[in-house]
Amino acid sequence: MTPAERRRAILDLLETRGEVSVEELARLFRVSQVTIRNDLSDLEARGLAQRTYGGAVPARKVLYNPSFEEKRRHRLEAKQAIAQRALIHIQEGDTLILDAGSTTLVLARLLKHRFTRLFVLTNSIPVALELQGSGLEVLVLGGSMRHHSLALIGPATVRTLSWYRADKAFLGATGVDLRGYSTPNPLEAETKRAMLEAAGRAYVLADASKLGRSTLARFAALREATLITDRMASPEELRAYKAQGAEVEVADLSMTLEGHTASEAPLGLGKTQEVDHEG
User: Fold this and answer.
1) Which key words tag this protein in UniProt (predicted)?
2) What is the pLDDT of residue 67?
3) Residue 266 lies in a domain
4) Which of 23, 48, 125, 206 is buried deepest, with most CB atoms within 10 A?
C-alpha cells in the first residue's frame, strides 16, 4: 500500500467512525506510529483531518454535541437496517424497554406497524410520541429531562425501572470499545444500567460510527448485551469484541425495495441479514 492509498483509507475510516487513534491505525496498516503521525499531519495540512491527542477527527467534525434531530438524520440508512435486524428478537406479547435515541426511535416506528400486543416502557419522549395511537401499551418512565436528547434520566427513572421486569431492552450507546458500552453522561449511564438489569435480554443498537469510541461513563461490559451494528463496522474490531465475550449481529445496509434506497423505502419493508465478517 502506498502512502497515498493509506491516507485515503484513513480518510475512509474517519468518515465511518468519526475519529481514529494513532495506535489503532499503526496496528491496522502494519506501519510505525511515527508513519501514522506523519500521515495525519499531512491530512491536517491539507484541511482533511484535525489532529487530536493520540489520533484525529474529520476536519469538518462539529465540536459540540449534536441535537436529537441531527442525530436522527445521521446515517439514517444504517439505523433503519439495525432496527430491522432488532425486529427478529421481538415477539407478540413481549414487554420491552426502549431507550432514548435515534435508532430506537426508528425501531419504535417499525413496532407500531408490526405488532398489536406489546407493553413498552420508555424514557424517550420522541419514542412515546411515535407510539401514540398505535394501540400498544406504553409506560413513560419519569425522571429529569435532558433537553439535548429528550431523554428522561436520573434517580426517579432508575427507581421506576426497579418495579418492572421486561423481556428485552433495546439500548443506545455513544461509544463502544473493548471496555464496553458508554455514554458521556453519568446519570444517563445509570439509567441505561437500570434498563439492562430490568430486562431478561439486552441489545445495544449502535451504528459503525460509534465503534472504537469511548466516552465518560461505561454502563455495561460487552458480554452483557448483544451488539447490533451495520456492515461498515471494522471486521477486526468485531472480532476483538467477540473475543471479549460479545455477541455481535450485523445488519445489511442493502435495504432496497423495488429500486428504492433505504431512505426512500417505507420503514419496515427493507431487508436485513446477518453478515459473517469473519469469513
Assistant:
1) DNA-binding, Transcription, Transcription regulation
2) 47
3) no
4) 206
Could you tell me if 119 and 35 lie in one domain? no
What is the tens place of the pLDDT at every residue in 12-67?
Answer: 788 767 788 999 999 989 999 999 999 999 888 877 788 888 899 887 543 344 44
* Residue 112 included in any domain: yes
Print the domain residue range for 172. Answer: 68-251
Q: Please tell me whether residues 146 and 204 are part of one structural domain.
A: yes
**For 129-184, how does the pLDDT look when each residue is reduced to its tens digit (9 = 90+)?**
999 999 999 999 999 998 777 899 999 999 999 999 999 999 999 999 999 999 88
**Residues 73 and 44 grouped into a single domain:** no
User: Which residue type sits at 44?
Assistant: E
Q: Are residues 38 and 89 in the same domain?
A: no
